[in-house]
């Protein structure tokens, strides 16, 4: 290629990943040295890769994870979580090929590829890895917002992008307080006799109202610092310390599981922001996704109780599948339900209704319907 501005932007994604073709390895740096606009864009893309800990020269994750809603309905215009069940195309093959081959990839492709390629951070224990990865992904996405999208874009409920980050500050706060971290502003208005739902609604409303008085970058900094503090606690790194149980959001679970919940919520809201801005956010890596699924199944089983009509529940992710019997162990199975892993998480996260979620059903449809409704009712996100 020649040293012209029209050709170099198409190669910036490959440059960010250290995946340029040999013929371009000298040409692109020379152009960047003399072109301020390309140099700024190249540095922004490389910083996105750095935040996600994607090693230079890594062009693809190679784990076969499907892009959320098969990579298309993730950015539906009405904001609903529509799409097909799992097992479809990854939706990332073109981005991988263009990065590896030096073709056009654009910021959206780089973001999706970097999110999908992110490794678990080694400085935390397995139970905190989904949260660490989700935090890295949201940080990268928020850099896209800061540079290219309005913070006031409606996202979910009556929240815009900044409000959604404020919501995460409030949500992380409960675990942070239990682990001995300080919380400063705004002061809490909740009372000891309030139910957890009342306390949660009051606190999240107060935090969002406070963050609306600040610059969006101050909100992002507050959230990022709180997340980093959580990931620096001994409980994030030591499974034994994280084994003790505590009650948050009305559910008593080991601290380790509450870290998984934090990862679940951070990913759900990253996906919310991505859809609002027209950016595809991939699902968590398979290992993290199955951690979310297993925890959600346990909580769903607790919600149904041991006397509910038994349902054989199967969750699939690509070629993997796991089955559980929910409800009574003393009766024959009365219904069967099959859900894709991402779809199940979106149902539990309140992004699908029982009627919308793609599913496979056999047997008694009423008992299966009860499982779907109970799963959807778990969400407070």
UniProtKB/TrEMBL annotation:
<dbReference type="Pfam" id="PF13490">
    <property type="entry name" value="zf-HC2"/>
</dbReference>
<dbReference type="InterPro" id="IPR034660">
    <property type="entry name" value="DinB/YfiT-like"/>
</dbReference>
<keyword id="KW-0804">Transcription</keyword>
<keyword id="KW-0805">Transcription regulation</keyword>
<dbReference type="InterPro" id="IPR041916">
    <property type="entry name" value="Anti_sigma_zinc_sf"/>
</dbReference>
<dbReference type="InterPro" id="IPR024344">
    <property type="entry name" value="MDMPI_metal-binding"/>
</dbReference>
<feature type="region of interest" description="Disordered">
    <location>
        <begin position="56"/>
        <end position="101"/>
    </location>
</feature>
<feature type="domain" description="Mycothiol-dependent maleylpyruvate isomerase metal-binding">
    <location>
        <begin position="132"/>
        <end position="273"/>
    </location>
</feature>
<dbReference type="InterPro" id="IPR017517">
    <property type="entry name" value="Maleyloyr_isom"/>
</dbReference>
<feature type="domain" description="Putative zinc-finger">
    <location>
        <begin position="10"/>
        <end position="39"/>
    </location>
</feature>
<dbReference type="Pfam" id="PF11716">
    <property type="entry name" value="MDMPI_N"/>
</dbReference>
<protein>
    <submittedName>
        <fullName>Uncharacterized protein (TIGR03083 family)</fullName>
    </submittedName>
</protein>
<dbReference type="InterPro" id="IPR027383">
    <property type="entry name" value="Znf_put"/>
</dbReference>
């Amino acid at each position: 290629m020649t040293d012209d501005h029209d050709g170099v932007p198409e190669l910036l994604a490959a440059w960010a990943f250290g995946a340029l073709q040999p013929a371009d390895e000298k040409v692109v740096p020379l152009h960047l040295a003399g072109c301020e606009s390309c140099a700024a864009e190249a540095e922004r893309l490389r910083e996105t890769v750095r935040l996600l800990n994607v090693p230079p020269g890594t062009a693809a994750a190679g784990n076969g994870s499907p892009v959320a809603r098969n990579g298309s309905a993730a950015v539906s215009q009405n904001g609903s979580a529509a799409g097909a069940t799992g097992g479809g195309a990854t939706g990332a093959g073109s981005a991988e090929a263009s990065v590896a081959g030096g073709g056009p990839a654009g910021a959206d492709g780089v973001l999706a590829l970097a999110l999908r390629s992110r490794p678990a951070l080694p400085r935390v224990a397995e139970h905190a890895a989904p949260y660490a990865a989700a935090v890295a992904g949201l940080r990268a996405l928020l850099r896209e917002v800061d540079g290219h999208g309005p913070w006031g874009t409606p996202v979910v409920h009556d929240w815009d992008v900044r409000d959604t980050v404020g919501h995460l500050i409030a949500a992380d706060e409960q675990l942070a307080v239990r682990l001995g971290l300080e919380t400063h502003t705004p002061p809490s208005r909740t009372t000891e006799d309030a139910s957890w739902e009342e306390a949660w609604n009051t606190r999240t409303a107060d935090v969002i109202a406070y963050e609306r008085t600040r610059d969006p970058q101050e909100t992002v900094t507050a959230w990022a610092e709180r997340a980093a503090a959580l990931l620096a606690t001994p409980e994030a790194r030591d499974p034994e310390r994280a084994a003790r149980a505590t009650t948050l959001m009305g559910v008593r679970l080991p601290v380790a599981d509450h870290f998984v919940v934090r990862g679940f919520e951070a990913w759900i809201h990253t996906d919310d922001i991505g859809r609002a801005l027209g950016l595809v956010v991939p699902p968590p890596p398979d290992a993290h996704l199955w951690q979310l699924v297993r925890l959600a199944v346990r909580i769903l089983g607790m919600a149904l109780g041991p006397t509910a009509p038994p349902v054989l529940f199967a969750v699939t992710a690509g070629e993997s599948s796991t089955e559980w019997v929910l409800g009574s162990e003393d009766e024959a199975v009365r219904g069967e339900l099959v859900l894709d892993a991402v779809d199940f998480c979106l149902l539990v996260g309140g992004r699908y209704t029982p009627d919308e979620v793609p599913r496979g059903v056999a047997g008694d449809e009423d008992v299966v319907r009860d499982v779907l409704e109970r799963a959807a009712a778990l969400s407070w996100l």
